[in-house]
Amino acid sequence: MRIERVVLRQLAMKMKSPFTTSFGTQLMREFIVVEVVDEDGTVGWGESVALLNPWYNEETMKTNWHMLEDFIIPALLGVHLEHPDEVTERLQFIRKNNMAKSAFEGAVWDIFAKQQGQYLGQTLGGTKSEISVGISIGIQKDASMLIRMIGEYLETGYKRIKLKIKPGQDVEVVRGVRQVFPDVPLMVDANSSYQLRDLDHLRRLDEFNLMMIEQPLSHDDLVDHAKIQARLETPICLDESIHSAEDARKAIELGSCRIINLKIGRVGGLSESLRIHDVCREAGIPLWCGGMLESGIGRAHNIAVTTLANFTLPGDTAASSRYWDQDIIEPEVKLTDGVIQVPTNSGIGFTVDGSTLDRYTVASKSFSASSL
Ligand SMILES: O=C(O)CCC(=O)C1=CC=C[C@@H](O)[C@@H]1C(=O)O
Ligand SMILES: [Mg+2]
């Protein structure tokens, strides 16, 4: 394929309910959608999952726009690509900025799968026809509200509940949930809000038979996570600490975790996701696909990657209706009896709804190879 045209769109989508983690609350999701068109007019779609603020990692929507406009698009516009793997190869001159790279690379993978006449999951090597998913619940002020929300989500069919925790809102919150839901598959995500000195406190979570404790320590740590994993019965899951297959290999060798939350944007795209998948499968480390409050485009990419064999735990790819009054894809992502049916159409498997996309677009810019 030859990259003929790229359109960057900044979207603003109001969340149906605020989402609070240890580092902040999201009310409005502002993010970038990348549209890539090849010489045959085949269109691919990608989504930057960077937040407005550099809380989760060093990237923001604005840094992503800068990287795309000033480095990534100039490096790839007008270029002939045999395979999407070449995107990562050609972008190696850019340090980090994985979410910006992933947004472009995902669109190229969409085109590539469409050119093969294949669903993206199949092109990646995935074999599943349905995926079971969990749901991530932000920090709630009111314990009874949390219990009600969990009951409703379990009713809807979600297979796993993920609670956000932070110092002062952890052991007693989980105890309260376990008193009502003693057997539900339950996990917690700390988003790096604890220190090594909190080990004895974190060990109190061992009594609740949690599936995992996600990213208790610093976003860039592997060594101290290995120290606390050696003292915890509950598996540690790493999210923010894993940026590449090399990070995954080191974390596994050090014993920093027993589970990894893979996020396509955090690791720089689908090509690196495939490498991480294989490293973890070789080591017997299960994966699940985390969420970044994506729109339907990012959600579609998450479903595709979750079709791979070593994604054996329910991820955070909840239904569109959990987040948005109206998503930008047709059909929206839905849960049927607690699972998402994997699409069979080519590419990301969903159609981008142009009128809804335009309605949420607050800024856009086009780049054309013919104007080079
Ligand atoms: O997309 C979802 O539903 C999960 C969202 C979620 O848990 C997160 C989104 C963004 C950053 C983090 O706070 C958090 C995570 O760590 O997974
Ligand atoms: Mg997380």
Could you walk me through the main structural features you see in this protein, from its secondary elements to its overall organization?
The chain is α/β, with parallel strands linked by helices. It folds into two domains: 3-117 and 351-371, Enolase-like, domain 1 (2-Layer Sandwich); 122-341, Enolase-like C-terminal domain (TIM Barrel, Alpha-Beta Barrel), CATH 3.20.20. Helices cover 33% and strands 22% of the residues. It has twelve helices and 15 strands. A seven-stranded parallel β-sheet has the order 5-6-7-8-9-10-11. Strands 3-2-1-15 form a four-stranded antiparallel β-sheet, sandwiched between helices. It has a two-stranded antiparallel sheet with strand order 4-13. Helix 1 (61-76) packs across helix 3 and helix 9 runs parallel beside helix 10. It is globular. The two termini are 17 Å apart. The structure holds the ligand O=C(O)CCC(=O)C1=CC=C[C@@H](O)[C@@H]1C(=O)O and magnesium ion (MG). Magnesium ion is lined by residues 189, 191, 214-215, 239, 261, 290.
